[in-house]
Amino acid sequence: MGLEYARKLSPKLNAKLAWHSFNLKDFEREDIEIKDDIVDLLANLEVSIFDVGIEFLPFTNSSFKLTAGVGYLSNVNANGVVTYTEEVVFGDVIVSKNDVGEINADISWSGAAPYLGIGFGRAIPKKRLGFGIEFGSYFTSSPDVKLTATNLLAPTAEQEDNLREALTTFKFIPRIQLRLAYKF
User: For residues 64-82, b (16+ Cβ closer than 10 Å) or e, as one string?
Assistant: First the structure.
C-alpha cells in the first residue's frame, strides 16, 4: 500500500512524492530441506519507504515511462526463525528438536537509496482514472545483520560476520508497484 502525489513539470516529465508500505507477518514454510536436515521457517518482512523522484515519458502517445529518484528506507526489516522439525541423529545419539534450538536472523536496511525503474501508466492520468505498473530497484548499502541462536545451535551465532559478509553483495531491494491513479 502507498500514497503518491505527482505534479506535471512538462508534457514528458512529472515529479513524484510517495510513501510505500508492505508488511508480511508470520509467513511459514515447513519442511525445507537443507543438506540432510529438514527445518521450518517463520519469517516477517516490514517495509516503509518515502520516495522523491521523477517520471520521464519518452513517447508522446505512450504510457511507457522511466523513473528515477531516491528513497528513504525508514523501516526495511526482514526476520527469519529456523527450527528443526524432527529430532537429530548422530550415530547412536538422538537429540530432540527442542534441545537442538533455533536460529534467528534479523536483517535491516536504512538510509537513503537511489532507485531506477521502468513501467507503464502515468502518475497523472490523461483522463480522471488511470492504472499502471512499475518494476525497478533500490540500490542500497549492505544490510545490518544480527544473528542469534539457542541451545545446541548457540555457537551458530558466531557466524554473524560470515552472514554479514555473504550479504555484502545483496544491495538491491526490488520494487514492484501496481498503481491506481486519480486526477483531481
Answer: ebebebebebeebbbebbb
| Alpha carbon distance, N-terminus to C-terminus of the chain | 20
Report the CATH number at residue 42. 2.40.160.170
- How far is residue 3 CA from its own chain's centroid? 18
Phi and psi at 126, nearest 5°, equal -65, -35
Flag whether pLDDT at 36 surpasses 80. no
Domain of residue 16, residue span: 2-182
The Cα–Cα gap between 154 and 142 comes to: 25
What global pTM score does this model have?
0.78
The count of structural domains within the chain is 1
Up-side HSE of residue 157: CA atoms within 13 Å toward CB?
Answer: 15
C-alpha to C-alpha distance for 65 and 133, rounded to whole angstroms: 10
Instruction: Tell me the average pLDDT across 160-166.
Output: 87
Give alpha helix (H) positions in the chain. Answer: 97-100, 160-166
Cα–Cα dist 67/69, whole Å: 7
Residues 6 or more apart in contact with residue 3 via CB below 8 angstroms: 18, 19
